[in-house]
Amino acid sequence: MELKQVFIHHVFFWLKNPTDQNDLVQLEKGLRTLTEISTVKSFHIGKPAATNRGVIDNTYSLSWMIIFNNAADQDSYQVDPIHLKFVEDYSQLWQKVVVYDAI
After folding, report:
1. pLDDT 10s per residue in the chain (103 long)?
2. Across the chain, how many H-helices and E-strands are there?
3. What is the per-residue burial (b if ≥16 Cβ within 10 Å, else e) of 13-43?
4. What are the backbone dihedrals phi and psi of residue 27, each rounded to the nearest 5 degrees, phi first?
5. Dist CA 45 CA 13 (whole Å)
6. Residue 73: helix, strand or coil by DSSP?
7. pTM for this prediction
8. Distance between CA 71 and CA 69 in Å, rounded?
9. What gap in Å lies between CA 62 and CA 6, rounded to an integer?
10. Distance (Å, rounded) from C-alpha 13 to C-alpha 28?
11. What would the 3-class secondary structure string for 4-51 be?
């Protein structure tokens, strides 16, 4: 069985003020603006699950997973004006971002 090739871009955000619910709501609102980018095939906004095993990192505040058809679509997403505006408008909310890209 051959799997269809897609490009997954998974971003984890650590908020500067992790207990501030308003900051969490604002970041989620900002992430939803990114869904307007035409190359976004599907997406998921997530919070840490209530799981507890040694291999799990649940220290992040919010995650953003996007599925693209291919790497070129992800590349165009990175320079899309909507994405650039998101970074400009919301980057003051986070202290750390980690990205995992997979094909």
Report:
1. 556 789 999 999 999 999 999 999 999 999 999 999 999 999 999 999 999 999 999 999 999 999 999 999 999 999 999 999 999 999 999 999 999 999 9
2. 3, 4
3. bebeeeeeeebbebbeebbeebeebebbeee
4. -65, -40
5. 11
6. helix
7. 0.92
8. 7
9. 23
10. 11
11. CCCEEEEEEEEECCCCCHHHHHHHHHHHHHHHHCCCCCEEEEECCCCC
Task: Look at the block and give the residue holding tokens 């649940």.
Answer: 58
Tokens in use for 10? 């998974």
Parallel, antiparallel, or unpaired for β 94-102 and 62-68?
A: unpaired
Q: DSSP class of residue 2?
A: P
What six digits make up the tokens of 64? 């953003």
- Walk me through the domains of the chain, giving residue ranges and CATH numbers: 7-102 (3.30.70.100)
